[in-house]
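Hey, resending since the last one bounced:
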Amino acid sequence: MAGVTADAVPDPAVDDEHSPGRPAPGPAATRPRVTLVAAGELLRALSAPVRIAIVLQLRDSERCVHELVDALGVTQPLISQHLRVLKSAGVVDGERHGREVVYRLVDEHLSRIVVDAVTHVEEQ
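The C-alpha cells again:
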C-alpha cells in the first residue's frame, strides 16, 4: 500500500474520503500492525461454529466441560480442544474446582463480537 508504513495500516472505515459525514483521515485512521495481527488471530479463534456456540453458552454463565458437552451435543474431547484454542486466544479462562475446571469468558467485548455476528447473519 502506498504511503503506509510497515507498522500501520489505514482504517478503511475512516479512510473513505468520498463518504459524506466521515471524518477526515487523521492519527486515528491507522492502527499498529501488531494490533491488526492480534485482532485477526482473535477473530480466527472465534471462527469455528463450536467455538461460537461455546462463547454463547459462557455468555449466560460459567460452565464446566460436561455442561458444555450436554448443552452442545458434541464429544468431550472436541469441547476440550476448542476450549484450548479459546483459552490460548485469551477468550476464556478456566478455574479448577476440585476435579472440574469451570470456564468463563474473559470479558464482555468478546461475547458482543459473537452475538453481533450471529445477529447479523440472522437478519439477512
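The beta strands are 8-10, 30-32, 63-64, 92-97, 100-105.

Sorry for the duplicate.
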